[in-house]
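Whiteboard transcription, Tuesday session. T.W. wrote the structure tokens on the left side:
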């Protein structure tokens, strides 16, 4: 583990949590947050939905996380719940929205 990278609990600009089968994204979903999340080894195998309504920024690491979750769920389609504009626009720009069922 790289000591220069913050732990998940040290990041205050955004959050990633799991509530049942829903992955909840909030705030800035950037490299630091996603990297800390992945290092915490949280299970995402059973994620059926991604709640992105409180996302204020979605960086490339956040987009990659969504892709990984969508691919891991195949053949099921992951539902993207009420995405904020800052979450939806980059996903659309990269074509990732085609991997998801979007509920607005």
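and on the right, the sequence the group agreed on:
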């Amino acid at each position: 583990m790289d000591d220069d990278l913050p732990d998940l609990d040290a990041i205050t600009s955004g959050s990633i949590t799991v509530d049942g089968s829903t992955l909840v994204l909030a705030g800035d979903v950037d490299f630091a947050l996603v990297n800390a999340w992945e290092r915490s080894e949280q299970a995402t195998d059973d994620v059926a939905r991604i709640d992105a309504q409180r996302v204020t920024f979605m960086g490339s690491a956040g987009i990659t996380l969504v892709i990984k979750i969508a691919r891991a769920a195949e053949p099921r389609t992951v539902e993207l719940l009420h995405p904020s504009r800052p979450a939806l626009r980059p996903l659309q720009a990269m074509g990732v929205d085609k991997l998801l069922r979007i509920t607005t």
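Someone added at the bottom: The chain is about 30% helix and 30% strand.
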